User: What shape does this take?
Amino acid sequence: MATLRGGRSLQRLSAIALSCPRARAAQRCPPIATHLHHRPRYLSTTRACRRAETIDAFPSLLANTPPELLSRAAPTATTPQTLTEKIVQRYSQGLSQGKFVKSGDYVTLSPHHCMTHDNSWPVATKFMAIGASKIHDPKQIVMTLDHDVQNKSEKNLKKYSQIEEFAKSQGVDFFPAGRGIGHQIMVEEGYAWPGTMAVASDSHSNMYGGVACLGTPVVRTDAASIWATGRTWWQIPPIARVNFTGILPQGVTGKDVIVALCGRFNNDEVLNHAIEFTGHSNTMRSLPVDDRLAIANMTTEWGALSGLFPIDDVLKGWLRYKATEASMYKAPSPTASLTSDRFNHQRLDELLSDPLTADKGASYAKELFLDLSTLSPYVSGPNSVKVATPLNELEDQAIPINKAYLVSCTNSRRSDLAAAAKVFKNAATTDATGKITPAKIKDGVQLYIAAASLPEQRAAEEQGDWQALLAGGAQPLPSGCGPCIGLGTGLLEPGEVGISASNRNFKGRMGSTEAKAYLASPEVVAASALAGKIAGPGWYERPEGWEGVRSGEGDGIAEEDRMISIEDALDKLVREAEAAVLEGEQTVAGSSESAPASPDKESEVETTTDILPGFPEKVTGEILWCDADNVNTDAIYPGKYTYDDAFSSDPAKMATVTMENYDRAFGQVARAGDILVSGFNFGCGSSREQAATAILAKDIPLVVAGSFGNIFGRNSINMRLWASKYPSSSDASASLSPTAGKVNKQSLDSPPPAPMVTPAKQSALTVRTGWTFTWDVRRSRVVVVEGEGGREWTQRVGELPPNVQEIIARGGLEGWVRKEIEGA
Assistant: This one.
């Protein structure tokens, strides 16, 4: 079968320089780039763009909406919105007339598509338990099997069979085990469509942003709600703009871009934000779609809820190719609709006639920039995405490896496999007779490969790339998540070092907690497998006069290079004036207001919050202190238990492994009724709702932290686990435990500091403090008593919104949906 293809280098061909008004600026303007857009496909499924129907929002959202938001007066048509806000506007229901959604708004959301994977059966059991029998809109739902595809046990095969039969009975598009990773299927089959919103019960739904589809994760309970009603709730997060400048150099990939972003902006700058990537058209042309998918995919690890690229010429070319390919290869699937139902030129004509773009003057919570031309190959780790090191520095350390992985939805598409195969082909030798001897991986090293999907593997086979990797000693695995999620063959053993082209290297994620995991591009993974140590292929050459990576706040464009219209100039002046007025108001307010309340004194006027029927007014317990930041979901509930449905449905069993990857002693130290208090970014990582239910299984009703991973916060609400941030007006983060920050302070998302003298007595990871924490919901305050007869102090906290109370009071989102179905 003939196909059009080109390697990474063909995707970034530079042409003539862009003409600029000043000679000096002309030297800095990025050159125009052209590309070959490829990617054949064999299986497919999509449908015409479908807008959400207008249905009532959650009752509490409408009942408690301020009158000004329900006003029928229409806002002006020029209300500037970000691209994220525009897409959410399309898929929000129950909006008042003329309402333009904005960051911070709670909306009732009916996404264009919702994908579930191996967790489809647990979702189905929730769906049936709430009294639902028929999926609200079968065309909205996609089911895939991808996580535990190597597991051939009777129990797992039975679950897979149940999912397939359920999908068939409901008329839902279904993709069986071995067909591919769900996120890749969503993209290559056209479910993730530009300008739409798609969700999935998996944390890497962000990947859809690589094709300008707003992708964000939901959890199993949300998915059951969407199955039953077509909708769920969502709060529009703060939106950050990340501006790219320059041209990505030869030998540097999209993986290097996102690894550098995670490492250079590693202080939670984009935590729980929606990201929009922007840049000059020539800059964006140096980022082909596959690189965009890798970048968007790992915005999850960066802490963001989405990573959205624009609808531009690069994407348009890729879409046209896909539509042509779909029309040529209409291979029918027995379990899903045709790809050409989604990828077709008529639908593209409609999309491209009026593509969505962010409005000029749209408001962003923050703006960051990265100069791509200053990047070199990067490596993430060990065991952290927040530590990114230039490859050349690690090469100098000659770090030996035991295992290498070309797997996952991040970097195992055909272009990634081609890049890795090129490393092997270049290292092959030819004797005097012309016989070619394939390059082999280093003795003692194991290399595992698994394509992102079956069509991607077939394309790699047609190009000879798959065979080149096998000839070099690679061990093939079925298309699926496998080692990336810590399931199946090839996991890291204690003491081993691995390097992977996947997306997540949390401690214990890919095997033993005593192993080390690094992340890198496919080229670097392949070169490392050949060398037996972390190494690169040598394709990158540092530019003359290089002075380091340019990144920081703002858009990164030098003022002398900036060309703006009169409208843009006026908009800039208005924004600067507004900022000056706000600064003045804050200065005046600061000089006239009294000092903030101390932990011992409440200076604010007490207000009360209405408590819905069935919702408790207070929760109280002893503080159980876990002195760590970035306690991820793998630490709270290990991945090896996540897809064992029998285990995860038994609270007694779950309680025995709660916080196991954080502290194996946690189960013996924790008691029923404790209040778990920890550091910042608690619950980051995957979307597994068991991280919340495992804590509940230990009879812990409340978690208090400096901040939460958004998906964990969402799970907490859906599963009726209370969660509260430290009071922002005090140093409570250092006051909620007598040992806070004094000894043993650690981060589970970054390696420990350099070796230090071990103290005579190591502090326990989990500490019983003897202190009491009480959250008074009606008065919106917390009261801490520092042990029997100790100091008592009070702090104000935010009100608990009525819609959140409503979900918790009904026993979680399942209970809410059940009530809605009963009342329908």
About this structure: The mean pLDDT is 83. The chain is about 30% helix and 15% strand.
